[in-house]
Write a structure and sequence with these properties.
It is built from two helices and two strands. By secondary structure, it is mainly alpha-helical. A two-stranded antiparallel ribbon has the order 1-2. A hairpin with a 2-residue loop joins strand 1 and strand 2. The longest helix has 15 residues.
Length: about 50
């Protein structure tokens, strides 16, 4: 019974989320934490934010 319930829960979760698709709000939050190396070069090392 536990295996069936676990399988059903996994199927429900996988049906709710499409891998790799993010909302514009999620993209904005992700980009907020990354510095722009052209505007703030002191926050980057050889053009890579750290």
């Amino acid at each position: 019974m536990k295996k069936i319930l676990l399988f059903v829960m996994i199927l429900l979760l996988s049906g709710c989320v499409k891998v790799g698709e993010f909302t514009p709000e999620t993209h904005k939050l992700y980009e907020m934490g990354k510095p722009d190396c052209e505007k703030t070069p002191e926050r980057c090392y050889k053009g890579v934010p750290w």
